[in-house]
Design goal:
Elements lengths: L7 H10 L1 H97 L3 H9 L2 H18 L3
Keywords: Coiled coil
Amino acid sequence: MASEIPTDEDVEEMEQSGVVAVLQRAIGHWGHSGALISGAATVFVHELESLNQELKKKEDRNQSLENDLSSLKTTYDSKLSDLNSEVSRQKAQVKKAMEEAGAMKDKNDELQVELSKSKEEIIAEFQKFAAYDQALADAGAPEIMHGQVI
């Protein structure tokens, strides 16, 4: 029956049996359902667009935060490297100062040993040097000159 066009007699018979009214109501409901579905689809599309915009904003914010984090990590690594270099430099400086302090202590110990020597030991050591002989010669010349009558 659906494959051929109904004749006028068929239409009259359907009208009398109430089939046309049922079909008209069904078509009305079908149209109403289509309008509701279309309205719901429009609302869903708008909601989806809103969600997509919100998602885009969040993705942009996330990207911005990731860029900031990357920048902070780079700065942190640079500062850490600078700090490690400074610590190494300071350690070398402390080591050098400790070595100098050790050398000064050794020199101080030597001087303390020399100071603890008696006068006789110091004079005996000084008499071994050529400077002692020269000092005696230089000191003797004015004494001889002083003793002469002019």
